[in-house]
Amino acid sequence: MKPKVFKLSKENASFFFEEFVPGENVGRIFKVSRVDYSKQSTIQKIDVFSTPDFGKVLAMDGMIQLNERWEFTYHEMIVHVPLFAHKDPEAVLVIGGGDGGAVREVLKHRSVKRVDLVEIDPEVIKACKEFLPSTASKLIDPRVSIFNEDGKNFIARKNEEYDVIVIDSTDPYKGAGGSLFTAEFYGSCSSALKDGGILSVQAENPVYDSKEMERCFGEIKKAFPIVRPYTAFVPMYPSGFWVFAYASKTVEPSFKGEESRVKSIDGSLVYYNRKIHDSAFVLPTFLERLIG
């Protein structure tokens, strides 16, 4: 089964169309140089295709998950904000994120000794290892353990095991990520965190997904007393204006430790820095009214 590629121009080029929200009237197109991989797994449709301007692109159920050119903005912000807000992260759980980008960023922290990755669909990991090594290369690191199961079931069995949990899931309204946007799930995350533990969640955007974003924050607030929205410029996603949720039982999201913590890895950072950490929590007025 091929991805939904169609002809649009006189030179008979191929294009991939993505709806920003299923059933809505707005989307975008990518010119396709080559279809590298296309498979219907038991869970979702997985496509990897090459583009002239953005490198390889990963799509699931017709929705873009990453492109090689800009994936760093998303992965750096969903990972480094919570890890630098923790004084000494050693055990980290990533739920979703079968492309490996979040795991790659987590392992830049020298304090990290263990990373558990829970990806419900093993076909995502297989495809990314073969076609997206720029994100998936660290999945073979000996500190990484991979579990192919529903994150909701996995987290329900854990108690005070992790310093940081990163929820790098697909969107809530389509695909395998829906069970990861509930108060029950976030309550399990709270139980799975050690004292001083931190949760970060990809929480959609306020332009095309404001209702889902608002619901996401409402559910997180049922499980955590400290919930702080933060934002980043993520051009590979709809609107380019992406929102994340920081949550903890006791720890505010200020940067912890010495500046040397960032300097020890800043040669490999492209978006995140010490100033971005603080400024990401400054919200525009409309967003503060909506979820602040």
From TrEMBL:
CC annotations in GO: cytosol
Annotated active site residues, numbered on this chain, are: 168 (proton acceptor)
Q: In which pathway does it act?
A: Amine and polyamine biosynthesis; spermidine biosynthesis; spermidine from putrescine: step 1/1
Q: Which residues form the PABS domain?
A: 13-249
Q: Which PROSITE patterns match?
A: PABS_1, PABS_2
Q: Report the catalytic activity.
A: S-adenosyl 3-(methylsulfanyl)propylamine + putrescine = S-methyl-5'-thioadenosine + spermidine + H(+)
Q: Per the UniProt record, which EC number(s) apply here?
A: 2.5.1.16
EC class name: transferase
Instruction: Give any single GO term for biological process.
Output: spermidine biosynthetic process
Q: How does it assemble?
A: Homodimer or homotetramer.
Similarity annotation: Belongs to the spermidine/spermine synthase family.
Function field = Catalyzes the irreversible transfer of a propylamine group from the amino donor S-adenosylmethioninamine (decarboxy-AdoMet) to putrescine (1,4-diaminobutane) to yield spermidine.
Q: Which protein, by its recorded name, is this?
A: Polyamine aminopropyltransferase
Organism equals Mesoaciditoga lauensis
Top-level taxonomy:
Bacteria, Thermotogati, Thermotogota, Thermotogae, Mesoaciditogales
